[in-house]
Amino acid sequence: MHPLSGRAGYGALLSMVTVLLWGLLPIALKEVLVHMDPYTITFYRFAVSGALLAVWLLVKGQMPKVRQLRGQGPWLLAICIVGLLANYGFYLLALRHLDPRTAQTVIQLAPLLLLLGGVWLYKEPFGGAQRLGVLMLVLGLGLFFNERLVEIVTDFAGLGLGVLLMVVAAVTWAAYALAQKTLLRQLSSVQIMMLINLAGALVFLPMSAPSLVVELSPWEGGWLLFCCFNTLIAYGAFAEALNHWEASKVSALLAITPLMTFLFVAALAPLLPFGFDTRHLPLLSYLGAGLVVLGSVVNAMGHRLFSRKKATT
């Protein structure tokens, strides 16, 4: 198991930074998608983040060296790169068919998969509370989509395709996160993120059209810039949080990300000219989203809450 620093409060703070930035990210991406394709957006996100991280590590004299990777290190790095690149690509492709609130609700499968992977690889506990959490999450997704459930399995060019792509994004993200947690024994979080981002820029460059950036309005350009720095800060904070806090606790806090997206949409829609549907969802959808979040929290933290309750009785 990866040794932790013991600075749990710092790990919680870093996790919360990630939550806030990821909560706003799909809104920003949805705005940029109006006039820029997913591959070009992803190229810019990786290129800007990778370049800034490379400059930082050069100044600090901490550029990663080949000899740092031992044993399974190269394979773990490859899983991290492929996993996060696939997550970025599938997430943006899914976002073409989903509004930000739906996207953030479905992507809650990612923390669940991170939890299950932690149980399998790191021997973290999984008991009755986690089973209850899984049931709550599945029921919550059903309530969230309610009358759209039929559309999911019949509309292979719209909502159904978007949900399927988002599920793939969740799977690939969990693979990246689990591989990175072990890789942190050999490389720092900043070194890992630099390598992933530079590799991502190289992979997505042939599929992108960087010149499209000049066609963006100042509004869209501002959102693109935010997405680039969001990538740098949010994933850096997440990677470092795993150094200080258990994967189960990090995933529990990440579970509230959809609530942040719902709050951001509700608060900003009356003030900003968003290019996507910001109308209120049915009440059952809000209840379902809340149950998804609650289920994710129970998945990650339920065994600790239950054990504390037993200890006090």
Automatic annotation (TrEMBL):
Membrane topology qualifier: Multi-pass membrane protein
Recorded superkingdom: Bacteria
GO cellular component, one term: membrane
Residue ranges constituting the EamA domain according to the UniProt record: 10-144, 161-268
Keyword Transmembrane recorded: yes
Entry keyword Heme: no
Localization per Swiss-Prot or TrEMBL: Cell membrane
Major localisation: membrane
One family name in Pfam for this protein: EamA
Similarity field: Belongs to the EamA transporter family.
Protein name: EamA domain-containing protein
The organism of origin for this protein: Gallaecimonas xiamenensis 3-C-1
Lineage, highest ranks first: Bacteria, Pseudomonadati, Pseudomonadota, Gammaproteobacteria, Enterobacterales
